[in-house]
Structure prediction request, 389 residues.
Amino acid sequence: MKELELKYGCNPNQKPARIFMEAGELPIEVRNGRPGYINFLDAFNAWQLVRELKEATGYPAAASFKHVSPAGAALGYPLSETEKAIYFVEGELSPIACAYARARGADRLCSYGDWVALSDVCDADVARLLSVEVSDGIIAPGYTDEALEILKGKRKGSYNVVSIDPNYVPKPIERRDIFGITFEQGHNDLKIDAAMLENIVTENKVLSEEAKRDMIVALITLKYTQSNSVCYVKNGQAIGVGAGQQSRIHCTRLAGQKADTWYLRQHPKVMGLQFVDNIRRPDRDNAIDIYISDEYEDILADGVWENTFKVKPEVLTMEEKKAWIATQSGVTVGSDAFFPFGDNVERARKSGVQYIVQPGGSIRDDHVIMTANKYDIVMAFTGARLFHH
Prediction:
């Protein structure tokens, strides 16, 4: 197959639409459904991300993509009991299913209606997780017969399932048209690995293997996130992604807020919420997000809370939230371009950041390094910018 006609482009008025190869055949096979233009943008970006995570770390990897940026990305570490509880999964899962549960669970609101990418063959464990989630489609190097059967039954038989040739290598030069003008550049084949982390510029230079791995996860995630972008990572999982912001500090704040929300979901008051029977999963996720936020009154008002909870929850106060977040530690933050000021470090450390990886190269590098030293943070300069548009 050299080309595939699509229903329409980014919007229904943008016709005709297709994906095609100028030479050779498309490296994909549509196993079910009819993916669209944005679906394939998500699929191909997400596939590159998980493929590179697997190559760099050796662990199975998964990503949850929305609007051409990752809502979550993770390695297939085993799930703790706390993670199972906050991601609403049960039993023992395969490594690739653990990867997806963690990728989807990082930001369940942003992952609503996601496109899934897996580095490994999709098995029945992944398919069963997906069967109860709102999702647009999946791309993987292959599917077990049982997994494919489960996925084909999703969304009344219309769920998008795509296989990709894991050996496909893109052309070294890529092109695209904008406003009738053709842009051309070399494909971003920058290899991200531990060798990029050797230039540690802070007084604290103690970097564990686990922290190195988290730095790699952050950098590869950023490589496929719309710029400007900042990514918080813990234990092989992106827990907060700030994408497409014009200001670096806004990226850091946005990603930090998401990381804080991820951690607050582990607070005993949140884990103890008693939901009404048969509540829809999206309604439950939205309720948790509102309960944690400053708009908690919207869900706890008399005459309202009864629609969601069996028992009216106590308010999670600002003081309790601050105290809980203050116990967070061991977090890594990565940035796709240099931190221009120390304010990014100040914000990051409030979310438990102890490791920073960024290109360096700002005229204020000295101030950024000084700020990191103030909090005994380890910071590495890679010298490599990771803009993605």
The radius of gyration is 21 Å.
